[in-house]
Design brief:
There is one protein chain. This protein is an alpha/beta fold. It has 2 domains: about 70 residues, no CATH class; about 190 residues, Vaccinia Virus protein VP39 (Rossmann fold), CATH 3.40.50.150. Strands 6-2-1-7-8-10-9 form a 7-stranded mixed β-sheet. A 3-stranded antiparallel β-sheet has the order 3-5-4. α3 packs parallel to α5. The termini are far apart. The structure holds S-adenosylmethionine (SAM).
Length: about 300
């Protein structure tokens, strides 16, 4: 239906102007696949960031938001901007790779880690953990707190990685806005925390800052799951709420990468919503521990 016809349908109805304005905005922000391909190729060729295997529907939602930020009516207008303006490109890259996270996000799985998985890991002389897609570091420090409380932190090493160097910088600093403090404190309790969340964070310059001791066993590393290699001989690999942004082929590639990084008997934890169909077919050595949790173990036997 063209604008003129719609104009006649809605004319005189309540909210007429709002409806027309939203419609014009939506029409102008319609994104064509060819524009997405060209923009993604520009980011890949110029900066080495390959988002071509990401799931299209959610990618388009994030690109739509970026178009509003940059006040452009067509996605293709962003192509020369990212090609010739490095800081604009960085903004687009950040807009595509969303760092949303929380301390002890989905507390039930953290409670399970504490009660069931960490006691198993305690039998290893050294505990190597790869936490992929760390965003601003909330999950990495949640792991550090839990390892500290179970007496395992000193013989653990947590490698936290992300594609985005700006997120890694924030994660290394270990500072977040104050607004989430109560929510994170509740999550910590629900996850079986044995002390008080405020024991691990201090308020500094109107921000929440993590205690320095929790940084000692943590290393933040730039790593791109699309193109970079495995981490070797990990006892636990945590990659939550990252695969949901990927298309099927890329999900398969990344599951293999994560599984190959695990030592036999090691654990792989994915995000709650990441029920990857055929995961055990992608890597037959992975067995799901509990059908209600996205937690897998790499079998010990030879296959
Ligand atoms: C939604 S956050 C997940 C944060 C945390 N794991 C959690 O579950 O709370 C997704 C993170 O994955 C990162 N990411 C996206 N694509 C990536 C890639 N190809 N390689 C590594 N990290 C990636 C993003 O930069 C972002 O920080």
């Amino acid at each position: 239906m063209g604008y003129q016809k719609i104009f006649h349908v809605f004319r005189g109805q309540p909210g007429f102007f709002e409806k027309m304005t939203n419609l014009i905005k939506w029409k102008n922000h319609h994104i064509e696949d060819v524009e997405v391909n060209l923009l993604l190729n520009a980011l890949k060729e110029r900066y080495g960031y390959d988002f071509t295997g990401y799931a299209r529907a959610s990618l388009k939602r994030r690109l739509s938001a970026l178009m509003l930020d940059f006040s452009v009516e067509r996605l293709s207008q962003l192509i020369p901007i990212v090609l010739y303006d490095v800081s604009a490109a960085q903004k687009v890259i950040c807009g595509i790779s969303v760092p949303t996270s929380d301390f002890f996000r989905d507390p039930k799985i953290w409670a399970y880690l504490r009660s069931t998985i960490l006691p198993q890991l305690a039998s290893f002389p050294r505990i190597n953990i790869w936490q992929a897609g760390c965003g601003h570091g909330e999950e990495a420090y949640s792991l550090a707190i839990m390892l500290h409380e179970t007496g395992l932190l000193k013989r653990s090493r947590i490698f936290s990685s992300d594609i985005n160097p700006l997120f890694l910088e924030q994660a290394r600093a270990g500072r977040w806005p104050l607004r989430n403090q109560n929510y994170w404190s509740d999550n910590y309790k629900l996850a079986g925390g044995s002390a008080d969340f405020s024991d691990y964070v201090v308020v500094k310059n109107n921000e929440l800052a993590i205690a320095d001791e929790l940084k000692l066993q943590l290393e933040f590393i730039q790593h791109n799951l699309v193109v970079d290699d495995v981490f070797k001989e990990m006892q636990l690999v945590v990659c939550r709420n990252v695969l949901i942004y990927f298309g099927n082929t890329l999900q398969e590639h990344v599951v293999l990468l994560l599984a190959r990084s695990l030592e036999r008997g090691g654990y792989l934890l994915l995000g709650n919503g990441e029920n990857i169909v055929q995961l055990s077919q992608i890597h037959p050595q992975l067995e799901q521990l509990d059908s209600s949790l996205q937690l897998y173990r790499k079998r010990i036997g030879v296959y």
